[in-house]
Each structure stands twice: as C-alpha cells, then as structure tokens.
Amino acid sequence: MKANFTLFFLVVFVVAAWAGWGWPNIAKIMPVYVAAIPGLILVLVQLYREATNWEGRRGGSGGGIEMDEVREVTLDKKVEFRRTLTFFAWFIGGALGIWLLGIVIALPLLVFLYALIEGKEKWITSLIMAACTYLLIWGLFEYMLESRWPPGLLFG
Amino acid sequence: MTRGYSFSVFALLVFLFYPIISLEPVFSQTDFYQGKTVTVVASTAPGGTGDLRVKALVPFLRKHIPGSPTVVIEYMEGGGGRKAANYLFRTARPDGLTVGAMSSGVLGLQIMRESGVMYDIDKFIYLGAPETVGHQIIYTRKDLGLSNLEKLRTKPGIRIGAQSVGHVSYVAGRFFAYFLDLKDPKFIAGYSAPEVDAALLRGELDARANLATSALRRNPDWFEKGLMDFHAIMEIPKGAKHPRLSHLPEIESFAKTDREKKLITMWRIFRLVGYPYVMPPGTPKERVDVLQEAMRKALKDPDFHREFQKLVGDEVEPVMPEELAKVIRDVPRDAEVIDLLKNLSGSAPLPPR
Amino acid sequence: MELSLFDAAARGFLNILHLKVFLAMMIGVSIGTFTAVAPQGLGMPLVYAIALPIVIKWEPITGIALLIGASSVSAICAAYLPILFGIPGGSGSQATVLDGYPMGKRGEGRRALGASFMAGGMGSLIGTLTLVLAIPVTRPLIYLMGSPELFVVMLWGLSMVAVLAGRRPIKGLIAAAFGLLLATIGQQAQSGIMRFVFDQPYLLDGISISIIALALFGIPSALDLALTKLGVEQQPVPLKGSLFDGVKDTLREWWLVVRCSFVGVWVGIVPGLGSQVVDWLAYGHAAQTSKNPANFGKGDVRGVIAPESANDAKDGGDLITTLLMGFPQGVVTALFIVALLAWGYLPGPEMLKKNPEVIFSVVWIQGISGIIGTLVGFVLAAQLAKLAEVRYTFMVPLMFIFILMGAFSVNRDPIDLLVVITFGILGYFMRRFGYPRPAMILGLVLGDLMEKYLYRSVASYGFSWLGRPAVIVLFILAAASLVLTVRGRLKGREDSPTSLGGAMARTADES
Predict the structure, then answer these.
(1) Is A148 in contact with B91 (Cβ distance < 8 A)?
(2) pLDDT recorded at residue A62
(3) How far is B13 from chain C (nearest CA, A)?
(4) Which one of A80, B61, B251, C124 is least enclosed by Cβ atoms within 10 Å?
(5) B41 has which bridge partners?
C-alpha cells in the first residue's frame, strides 16, 4: 500500500513531464524542469528505499523534527478501515447532496442524518442541529446578506 | 362560529375574489414583479471592486422596477466571464426574473473564438451598461528622456509592463507599441496592478498602458508635475476627449490601412460595451420592456451617479439598451481583423505592418 | 499648512475621541470576531463589500473605525479553528494547525489559544508601531525589493522545505515538488499558455489554495474524531494548561514574536506577496532558527506563536503600502482605498502631505482595536475551548459544515466539491504514509511567486540581476540558512538515535 501511494506521485510526475514537454521554455521551466523531473528522480529514490527497507535498516529516518501531525490512533485495523470508509461515505454523500439538492437543503440534511444515524442522537437533537445549520446557510447568507447560493442540479 | 357560517363566509370570499383571481393574466406586467425576486447573476467574486459595481446598481434596480421586487446577487465567477455568460445563455430560465451582470471580456471572447464559449452575444437581450472601460493611455518614465514620439520610436527594447497576457492593460500596451512603431518592445506580464506602478518607479519597467482615469486618480502628480511622459491615447468612445489629455494624439491617427482601422474599431467596441447587463434569450417581451425601462431610469438617476462615483470611483457613462445592442451588432467580424487582434492579444512577436 | 508628525499624531488621536467613533470601532470588532469564528465564505472581503455602501455615508473617521476595527480583529481571533478543529483558518492562519491542533488534542487547547491571542495582539502592536516608524521612510522600503531580490527571498522560503520535510527529507521534497506542480495549473500570466488545464474552464485560474489547505488538513482531522468516536479533548489525557500559561509562553518567547512580526510586516509591505505565505514563512523561520526544534509539529507552542504574530503584524505592513504608497495589497485593502477615495482622501504621498492626521487616526484605531481584539479573544477563548469537549456527534457535522461550506463558497461551483474530496483523500494518504503536508503547501504557495519573480528578473535585466548587491547578499543569507538547517538535522540524527527510533515506531506505515 505504501509503494502504491508512492506510485501515485510517479504517475503524476510522469504525466506532468509528458504533458508539458511540448511547451515553450517560458511555460516549461517550473512545471517540468523544477518540479516534474526532479520529483520523478526523487520518487525513484523513494521507491528504491521502500523496496530495500532503507529506513528500517538505518534505524530510523534522518534527523529532524516531526513535521506533520503524528497519528496515534490505536484501533483494530478492520474497525479503522470500516470507520474510515463510513466517514468518507458521509462526506462524499454530503458533497453529492450539495451538487444535486443545493447547499441550503443538503447541508442541514447531512447534519440531521449524520447525527441521527451515525451519532445515534435523538430525533429532536438532530432536528435542532439541522435547523441551526439552515439558519446559518440560508438565514445569514441568503436572507440577511442577500447573497444567493446556487440551486442544486435537480432544482436548477 | 358554526360550521355552516364558516362555509358561507368562505363561499362569499371565493365569489368575490374569483373574478380577480381569474383575471390575473390580464394584469399589467408591472405587477408581475411585485413580491417576486430578481436574481442578478454576477460574473465576479463576492467582495471586490467588481462586486461593488453590481452592488451600486442593485438598489436602483429595486427602486425603478415597478412592484419593487427583491433583488439578490448570485455570484458566478470563472473562466474570464464565460461561466456566467454560458449559464445565462443555456441554463437560466427566461422568465424575466434572471439578469446577468457580465464581465467586460464576454464580447471579445466570442469574437476571438476562444474555447469554452457556449453563448451567442447576438442572441442575448441587452439592458444596458453603467460605464464603459474608458480611455487608454501609454506613458514612460521621465528619466528615460523620451519626451516625444520620435525619441520613443528610436529607443530599442522598451520594457512595457502589464498584468497578464490577454489582460486589457497588456493588449492596450501591445496596441500602442504596434501603432506607434516602437522598436523591439519587450512585454513583461505577470505583475499585479499595484506592482506595475512600483516596478515602473523602481526602474524595472520603462512604460505601461493604463486607464487614463485610473492612472491620474492614483498618481495625479505624474501628470501635474510631469513625472511621466504621456505619448498617445485611445479614446473610448471615439471622439470623446479626455479633459486633461486631449492634446495627446489618438491611436487611430497612426492607422495605415483599412484593416488597422477596423482593428481599432473592434477593440474600441469591446471596451465601450463595458460591463453589460443582459437577459437570457427567449425572455417575454413585456418583461424585457419593463426591465429595460427600469434600467434606463436607474442609469439616469442622479442618486445612482453619486453612489457609483463614491463606490467605484468612476463616473457613470451609461450605455442604454438600444445603443448597446447596436454597438454589438456593428462590431466588425472580419476574419483577418480577428486574426490580427488575436496576435496582438497573445505573446507572439508583434506582426510587421 | 503642513503638520509636523507629532502634531499629526496628536490630532489623529483627538479625532478618535468621540463616542460614535468608539461605538463604530466596537461594531467593527464584533463583526471581525464573528467572521473569525464563522465558516470561510463570510470573510473580510464580503464584509467590506457589504459595509462600504453604508459607511461611506458616515463621517470618515467613524467609517474608518468600523472597517479597521473589523479587519484587525478578524486575524487575531482566527486561530481557534486550527487549534480546536484542526482546520486551517483563513489566509495567514494555516500553519497554526501544525502545532495548535496537537496541543488541542492533548488537552492544552486553552494554552494554545492564550498563546495565539497574545502573540496576535503583540504582533498587531508591532505592526502598528512599524507603520508609525515607516511614515517618514516609506519610499525606499518599497523600492528596495525588486523582482530579483524577491526571487532570492522565495528561494530562502523554499529552503524551509528542508525543515518542513523533517525526518523524511525525500518524501518532503516529493511533497514540495508536487506542490510546485499544482501551483502551475492554469493560464500562465507571462505567456498566456494553458498549463494542465485539459480544456476544463474550471482550471483556467488554477486550483484555490484555500480549498486545498482546507481539505488536506481539515478532513483528516475530522476523520480522527470519527475514528475514535470521541471529542477532540475526550482522549484519555488530563486537561492541562490555561489561557495564562499561553500568555506566559508568549512573553517568554518575546524575541520570536518580534522576529516573526517583522516577517509579517515585510510580507505586508511588499506588493504582490500574498497573505498565504506569511504564516508558512514565519513558521519555517521559527523551526529553522530554533535551537531545539524537536517538538515542532508535535504541539510546540512556538509553532503557534510564530505564525499568529506574523499574521497579525502583516496588517500593519499592508497599511504601510496602502496608506503611504497608495498600493493595495489585496481585496480588503483595495476596498479600503475605495472608501478613502469616497471620503475624498487620496492614499499615498498626497495623503501623507495633506491629511497626515487621518493616517494617524488609522494607526491609533489599528492599535486600539488590536488590544480590544486580544481581550475579546481571551474572553471568547474560555467558551470556545469548551468546544473541544463536545462529543464527536456534534463536532464532526460542524466540521462538515466548515469544510464543505468553506470550499463551496470559494467559487460556488460543484467542481469545488470534487476538489475538496480529492484533496481530502490525498491528505489522508499523505498523513498515513508520511508525506509531510506542510512541505506541499509551501511548494504550492511559493511556486507561483518564484516563477513570476524569476521571469520578471530575466525579462527586465537579462542575467545582470545576478550581480545586484542586494541579490548577492540575499543569496548568501539563503545559502547560509540552508547549510545551517541541514547541519542541524545531521547533528540531530547523531545526537538522539533513541528518539528517532521512537518516532519511527510511532510513524511506521500501517500498510
């Protein structure tokens, strides 16, 4: 899985170099010569390191600070996988809802359903949360500021 | 109250009001807008000078549309104005309740056959425009000593700064360089608006083209104290003299061929159209008439002029609906003129004259 | 008759000693505080656009009090989102998430908030003071930094990737290269060429950095809550730290506050440098120059102090160019200029000559509202920090609102949602497999600027710009900074193998 993710960067840099190769130099320098090609070389180095377990053999990464948040979730792998999928399903569902129904309907609906189904909150609590969301999105923006959100695809 | 009594009252009300309800279609269109909401689809982001232009007009539309409907703004920035224009043309309902506040580039994008254009400027219904994009001028740093056109023409490699390739300031600079026969000019784009002035004063650039009103408002001492040398002007509309720069030669006086004159006419029209207000094709004529009349009144309203001047800093130079439609109909569409304009708008070397 | 600066300062102060000016300032402070706690979409540009038609009918000083009151406070109070929710704040408050959120998760949210408000308040005052000091010497400040000099400064900024890459230099550089690549999407201003647009009108203007940052950091943070099914502070750790601990931390790190404030002021002064770089530059500078950077990225309070002081000092820098040179630095200052013009003032040297007392009124209002904003922040912090104790069934939907609404409000285009999903998934995998997201963001914010300055330098000067004295000095400083950073990292590797091993165990890939 780790190597697969590094491959993602490999594909990105290869596509970038290929797409940009035909541009004049003025357009090509940064994306191709500064980003894509050096990036590609670095990815190959990283793939080599992963294939040979470089970091494990050297007893740790290079010196320095831990420059991104360290995850300390200690869950059973299956539970973690299921909850991650569920989370993204809710998030992507919310985004789909905004596209289809418009943000004024979709966000309160998302909040209501998430609280009720996933959070197992009471009906009344979920309804109140949805109402507050509606007040924010419609009340503040559309009613008070007269700045209309675009309607969803189904109402457009 | 007994059930029978309630029913009698109900029946009486229906009997009294039924004729009124059934006669609704014959009510004048002026009452159509009462209680309704008109949406102005603005080709700009919320917050910003583009937004202020629209916000300045909205209260006056509300005032002058009979029935005083609610007028709200829906923001649809993107693609240099294409997104809003495409939406108005293809998707918006032509029911008289949707108006578009377009960007100044929509006309040029279609004429120049740019990609992503899915609208037709000849089919939009025009309501008018509050302002044109005014006179363009070109000026150089005083310390270069280019005090007249002869010296300007003989100086090789003048560095002309601008925002981005295709931006109004960039194209204006290219126009001036082409028509004034500058020697090997260099066009350096990629500055933001305030950066160009700073670069000019720093000596990183030699010249720039800019809106006359903008340049003089920001830096009045450039003109009053002669800190810059001003060389030429493009009048928009043609013949309208700038009060302080009328002595500058007009760019069309340098045109040598009919093609070049048409080129200037075409670009002048693009600027003259300003930020047009439009309605989707197929909107019922009665409702178009109502909104066009409301727009005429708004554009002539002295309170609007004051408000616009304060918010936007520019004078209202209204373009009425019929004038706007005519100007767009009359824009030259010759293929060779368009090709020349595309060349001047791009980054390739200037073509020989 | 031209006033002396002292007279102008005194008159400027007297101008604001009216009840209605104070009330307008308080209204502005309230609006600014509200926008700071509201989701993105209700930012200062929209507030200014709405307020302008109203305030231009007021007396100038009263209108200025509302506008400046709102904008100066909005930046100070913006840190609560990154600290409590792990969602990057608006421009200028993104880097705070790197250390602010870990502090929140281990029960030190109050301390982090205290530090951020105190640092913000101090930064705001330093920015205001710099504005005052700059009044006699403005012109050289702007003209000192041309495109060649700015390019070298961007190189120095990019050298911070070596710091932000932390323990994974190769992965950090890959992330930075990816960020540089993303920055090139869209129509290139210098040539008009469409790069990586693939005929999609949405990509003509590139991908919004706000959406990317929101998704990259916000979604994984929301996911954490959904995974553990606990609130931010409902981890099995005791609550510790108070607001005043944060204040003490900031006072102890006063020299860091001063340095980062000057970074902020400088970013504010230079036309064209966006507000999106200020917090990253300050954070990178703090990590780069710290003698013991081991805790950066894990909840080091200095990682909160640095970006917050820079972000709030930047307002002072913005006002220097806006008021004294007439150059707006962004949408908000452009709108402020519109207001000044409507009141009959011409920002720039003219205003300095004819209306210096108005400039000083702005300065006084900026300083006073900064202090008020800090106090408001402290009052709010106690309440806002309780959000961290709220259970996940409330927090996750709240974060959904912030992320989806924040992303959608940028262009109001459904494709914004696709972008936020894509980068949210990317952020998840980057964090999981150890690709530092800050390095990517740094590449993203600096890439466009570097390219622009390099192009302009070569186009204007050929290659002679390499011989400019300021360029040579800056090159040496940037090189020295990089060498010191690399040396520090190598030294760190030699000195503490056990802690590296521990870090290795914690960050082992889960695949």
Answers:
(1) no
(2) 46
(3) 45
(4) A80
(5) B74, B100
Highest mean pLDDT (candidates A72-86, B333-347, C94-108)? B333-347
A55 vs C contacts (CB less than 8 Å): 504
Number of H helices, E strands in chain B: 14, 10
CB of A151 within 8 Å of a chain C CB? The answer is no
Give the pair of three-digit tokens for residue B335. 């293929």
CB B41 within 8 A of CB B18: no
Show which of residues 446-475 on chain C sit within 8 Å of chain A, judged by CB atoms.
447, 450-451, 454-455
Band (pLDDT 50/70/90 cuts) for residue C472 is very high
Contacts of C215 in chain A (CB under 8 A): none
Query: For chain C, what is the mean pLDDT?
Result: 83
CA C142, CA B206: separation in Å to the nearest integer? 17
Cβ within 8 Å, pair B75-A146: no
Give contacts of B72 with chain A, Cβ < 8 Å. Answer: 142, 146-148
Residues sharing a CB contact under 8 Å with residue C129, sequence separation 6 or more, in sequence order: C316, C367
Task: Measure the CA–CA gap between B99 and B126, rounded to whole angstroms.
Answer: 10
Q: Which residue has the tokens 């503490």?
A: C496
Amino acid at C41: G
What strand order describes the sheet that includes B277-279? B70-75, B37-42, B98-101, B277-279, B125-128
Beta bridge partners of B38: B71
Whether chain C has a CB inside 8 Å of the CB on A138: the answer is no
Take residue C111 and report the two structure tokens written for it.
């301390």
Q: Count of A–B CB contacts within 8 Å? A: 18
Query: Is residue C362 within 8 Å of C68, Cβ to Cβ?
Result: yes
> Could you tell me which residue, C209 or A147, shows the higher pLDDT?
C209
Residue length of chain C: 511
The 10 Å Cβ neighbour count of residue B119 is 24
How confident is the prediction along chain A (156 residues), in pLDDT tens digits per residue? 556 899 999 999 999 999 999 999 999 999 999 999 999 999 999 999 988 887 666 554 444 445 565 555 567 888 889 999 999 999 999 999 999 999 999 999 999 999 999 989 999 999 999 999 999 889 888 887 777 888 899 987
pLDDT in tens, B307-337: 888 887 778 889 999 999 999 988 888 999 9
Q: What is the pLDDT of residues B123-174, one digit of tens each?
A: 999 999 998 778 999 999 999 999 999 999 999 999 999 988 988 999 999 9
Specify the length of chain A in residues: 156
Write out pLDDT tens, residues C386-409.
776 777 888 899 889 989 998 898
Asked if A146 and B91 come within 8 Å (Cβ–Cβ), the reply is no
Taking CB atoms and an 8 Å cutoff, what residues of chain A touch C46?
Answer: 145, 147
Specify the pLDDT at position C45: 80
Question: Which residues neighbour C466 within 8 Å (Cβ) at sequence distance 6 or greater?
Answer: C148, C472
Residue A53's CB: how many other CB atoms inside 10 A?
A: 9
**Three-class SS string for chain B?**
CCHHHHHHHHHHHHHHHHHHHHCHHHCCHHHCCCCCEEEEEECCCCCCHHHHHHHHHHHHHHHHCCCCCEEEEEECCCHHHHHHHHHHHHHCCCCCCEEEECCCCHHHHHHCCCCCCCCCCCCCEEEEECCCCCCEEEEEEHHHCCCCHHHHHHCECCEEECCCCCCHHHHHHHHHHHHCCCECCEEECCCCHHHHHHHHHHCCCCEEEEEHHHHHHHCHHHHHCCCEEEEEEECCCCCCCCCCCCCCCEHHHHCCCHHHHHHHHHHHHHHHCCCCEEECCCCCHHHHHHHHHHHHHHHHCHHHHHHHHHHHCCCCCCECHHHHHHHHHCCCCCHHHHHHHHHHHCCCCCCCC
Domains of chain B, CATH where assigned: 34-131+273-319 (3.40.190.150), 136-270 (3.40.190.10)
